[in-house]
Structures are given as structure tokens and as C-alpha cells.
Amino acid sequence: MALAFQRPVGRPATASRPASRRAPALRIVSAAATAPAPSPSSSASSVPASKLIDGKGIADTIRSEIAAEVAQLKAKHNLTPGLAVVLVGARKDSETYVRSKKKACAEVGFDSYGTDLPADVSEEELLKVVAAYNADPRVHGILVQLPLPKHISEKRILDAISIEKDVDGFHPLNIGALAMRGRDPLFVPCTPKGCIELLERLKVPISGRTACVIGRSNIVGMPAALLLQRRDATVTMVHSKTPDAAKICGEADIVIAACGVAEMVKGDWIKPGAVVIDVGINAKDDPTAKKGYRLVGDVDFEAAGARASLITPVPGGVGPMTIAMLLQNTLESARRAAKH
Ligand code: GUN
User: Fold this and answer.
1) Which residue among 80, 221, 286, 328 is least crowded, i.e. fewest CB within 10 A of its CB?
2) Percent of all residues in the chain with a pLDDT value above 90, rounded to a whole number
């Protein structure tokens, strides 16, 4: 089967798509959302601005740092970092995220390569696409947007991505290294890496503190817990089968919520003074909103914000950091390639 779409682009490949294929307003959203976010402007919020973690602002700073480094790489080594993004099917949320990733690449001076495949593409065809990007020296990072259609084995696809180009950090060898003391993965998954980057840039102490990670997904919860543990936090993971999650969460200095359930984490789950990182992004019906819905996180923002010392808003918190970390991973990969 011919590739539906494969080319290097100076600007996002999706820019040339017919309007009918472009995603309408975000309606389906996932826990590890990477959609660009408007700045948190909930004027009705009672959470003081001093408690808000400005993920968008921090991500913008990181993106400027990356753009400056890209310019240097080009000047000194004649090397342009390249990211290949593979999209299977036409899920509106995935299309939105992929478009954002390609746009971000163009903005920092990366080359982006895109392959859009129909939802019924065979696993073998997808593996061929991955193999071609593995072999392409212009490509330093490969990202296959998840979730994949049910007939495709996510495991087989992720295993096939070269660990040197696994900028998502989802390859079992990278996750395995993350889990082991004395080993360092080549890449760390972007959303949890972004959560830790927020904590570190805000100088939130992690070592010796208690942390609660809500949700145990491969993409966010599990690697977030490993990253906190590597920084010497005492980490508890809670999930759908945990009795008394509220009590466990209530003992944590740092909370990372990534359960994918709108506003599941209530105000009284939060220890006074805790730092709350909300990875969730969920559409909640709101007849007063222009679009009929608004975006909320996995945390009840108003109630939790009353007790927390710092809290990420949704949108404008973790989402922009995910893309910034993807760019950072891709830049790191290109730097490694320059050394070879
Ligand atoms: N789907 C939701 N989040 C992600 C992500 O970070 N990477 C990929 N590849 N797919 C996703």
C-alpha cells in the first residue's frame, strides 16, 4: 500500500490538508493531552494567581532555548533536528495533537516529517513506515501517535522504533532503564518529564518528600512515579482499585493526577500546602460556554487550589510542557547524532 502522506516539511504537513479533514474544536480529549492551550483566563476563579503554575510560560521559555540551540547546531554542524510523526486513522484528538507537534517543530527550526495512514492500514505497512524512519539519517525522533486502532499491536509498533530515535520514551528498553537504579534511559516520556521539569524550574523540593501519583498508565502515571522515585521522593501510586485513595493522596506533598477522569481529585484529597500537577484534560458540558463545553482537569481546580500551595491550571499547565519535552528529546537525539 502506498503511503498516504510522507514528506519533509518546513512547516506542518497538515497545513496543506483539505479543510474538511481538519479537526474541529477539541471535543474528545485524552489524559496526556498535548493540545496548545490558551492561557488560563478563568476570571471567575478564586485561586490566586500566585498559586498558578504557568506551564505555558515555562514551555515558551524552553522552546526559545531550544530554538537558540537549533540555530547553533545548524551553524556549527550543518545539522537540522528532524522529527517524524506517524498518525493512523482520523481521531480528532490525535489529529489535533499531531498538528500541534508539527507546528512546534517548525517554530523551533526542526524539520518535521509526517506519515498519515488510514485507520485500516495493516500492522505490516505501519512497521515498514517505522523501519523507513529508523533508517533515515535526517530523522532523529520518531513518534507514532497513540492510541492505535485495535487491530494493530501497540506493543509490536513501539518495540520496532529504534531506541536511539524513541523520543516518546515508550520503548521497553528505555522504560526498563528508567526503572533501574544505575541506568539512564536515552529518552524519558514527555508528559511525566514535563511534570518534573515544572517542579524543578519552580524549585519545588522532591527529595525526601511524599508524592502521590494518581493513575498508572504507561504514558504518564508509571513513568511519573519512576521519575519521582529517582529523585528520592517516597512515592505512592493510586488507581481505580485503591481503597481510600483520598486518604493516601491527602498525605502527599506532591500530587500528580493522571487518571483521565474529570475532576476526580477533590479538594479534601489535598494536603494543605501540597503542590498539585494536573495532567488531565477532559471536556465538561457547560451551557454558559461558547462551545457548550469547557476543559477541566482530573482535579477539582477550585477546591484543590484553595488548599494547594501551587497548582497547574487546565488548560495552560502540563499540556504545553509535553510538546516542549518532545522538542527537547528530539534536540538531544540530534546532538547525539552530531557526536557520532
Ligand atoms: N497519545 C497521547 N499522548 C501521547 C504521547 O505523548 N505520545 C504518543 N505517541 N501518543 C500519545
Assistant:
1) 286
2) 86
Where in the chain are the domains? 28-57+189-319
For the question of whether the overall pTM of this predicted structure is more than 0.85, the answer is: yes
Contact of 297 with 317, CB cutoff 8 Å: yes
Q: How far is the CA of 97 from the centre of ligand 1 (A)?
A: 8
Ligand 1: which of 29, 85, 95, 146 to mutate, most ligand atoms within 8 Å of CB? 146
CA of residue 94 to ligand 1 center, whole Å: 8
The pLDDT tens digits of the residues spanning 272-304 come to 999 999 999 999 999 999 999 999 999 999 999
Supply the pLDDT for residue 338: 87
C-alpha span between 233 and 51 (Å, rounded): 22
Give the distance (Å) from ligand 1 centre to CA of residue 146. 5
- Which residue CA neighbors atom 3 of ligand 1 most closely? 32
Strands (E), 57-214: 82-88, 111-117, 141-144, 210-214
Average pLDDT in the chain: 90
- CATH T-level fold of 28-57+189-319: Rossmann fold (3.40.50)
- Rounded CA-CA distance 45/174 in Å is 40
